[in-house]
Amino acid sequence: MAAPPTRPHIALRPSSFFKPIDTVDDDAWDSASDSEEPAHSTFSFSSWGRSSTTSPKPVPKPITSDNPSSTSLAFSYTHLNAPNPSSYPPRTTDTPQPQKNGWTIVRTVPERRSSNNTSSSNQDDSFDNVPDADGDVDVEGDMILGDLDPEPTGDSLQYLSVNSKSSSIRSDAESIANDPLCGIRRPASISRNSKDTITENPEKSDKLMRERSIRTNRKHKFVDCLSKQDVNIAELRKLAWAGIPNELRPMAWQLLLGYLPLASPLRSATLARKRNEYSSLVEVAFARDREGVDQQIWHQIEIDVPRTRPGVRLWMYGSTQRCLERILYVWAIRHPASGYVQGINDLVTPFFQVFLSAYIVSDPEEFNPSLLPKSVLDAIEADSFWCLSRLLDGIQDNYIFAQPGIQRSVRRMADLVARIDAPLSSHLESQNVEFMQFAFRWMNCLLMREISVQNTIRMWDTYLAEGPDAFSQFHLYVCSAFLVKWSEKLRQMDFQGIIMFLQSLPTQGWGDHEVEMLLSEAFVLNSIWHNAQSHFNGK
Hints:
Order of helices and strands: EEEHHHHHHHHHEHHHHHHHHHH
Strand order of the largest sheet: 1-4
Strand content: under 5%
Largest sheet: 2 strands, antiparallel
Distance between the termini: 38 Å
Helix content: 40-55%
Structural class: mainly alpha
Oligomer: single chain
């Protein structure tokens, strides 16, 4: 017998503003039950400084349904089954599976013989040749889940540290924190290995050289734009629409969100003021230690934080989780109309990961933030908080009571799809598939459960270039184009097949090309329909 459907939205507000609800269920963001108790927090309430703990906080076991049948979905937009854990796009490495003693990631890569290799292309050397807690050495593979104790300490966690701080953290990290331009005034030199390529395949070499030339030209345009005394925001938006180079994205995002002033002389003072303000907010929020926090909000945050990006090492470190807890709690108490809503934790991850990348030369998803200077990690946390606030300011009606923003967007999406793909719309209706049963999560999660973090970051480049309303308005057209992309397959399926397919879409292999095609199709729809608002039934 199928389990009853669960509510897709939880809005947790400070108890002084509303009467606490009796039951708290999962929403469309979660892949595990709320009934589980959160792991014991190592957050220090006496100070908002990060914990010295470098080991990843154990993640609760994901709960899988005994009956994954989609027929348990209700035919009303007010109810939706919590997604299957498979709704997370698989990473390039094998996703860890739950073991009886909790989550423990073990690095298993081919053994490197040279212990002196500290090049920037191999930053995780310390993961090699280190025994696990049971004394077993690493074996060849990607990642496995070891049956270790949930709270390992000491030498058994040495493999979770980066071999050399100097090989992973930029030497000018603290300067970049004070002045983002420090990180882009010296463009990286381009490596040219053309001789070998020409010898092997001259035609391929020419193509690679052309692509490299285009990328270099775009990067120089970005550098010229960002280096001006007063950045031309229109020019930056035009450049950013087609994607932002990785090393320039942190500063570009902050400018596009309006967090960083366009005028260069004002930036250092503004950053110092906003970071000090956030520090004060944290100190006030946790001034009375645990007894002073809103227990209902804090309880849900403690449950959700370990679930954030399961299997990604960055989000398993205690220092990262403490940052995330503070960001979410401070935002919740500053926005009592919505409070903390399950899933906002995922919206922090692109910001934190992008801003972290400004200070290191290794993969952010593998990096242990506790290795950073305290001032740098505090800056990343504060910048992530303010940029999250800017984003949510434009879509806050998605998270207030009854979520009118999401309901309006889903109605408009259904009406738009009926016009651009009538056969698909008719088939969904004939199978009794309501858009709210799958599109709710697309709107609530900004498609973050359907595509990878890297795809999300690339998509957000365009969203931020589109303007402040893109996360609600332009996202509607992206979701419509996303659905129509699967039209031919969906029209061959029945109700159960449609729901199961849409909950686990085959986007695992998507790269920038697929995302850019989707964005281009959405741009066409936006151009045609944006000025025809009267054609939509729902507003």
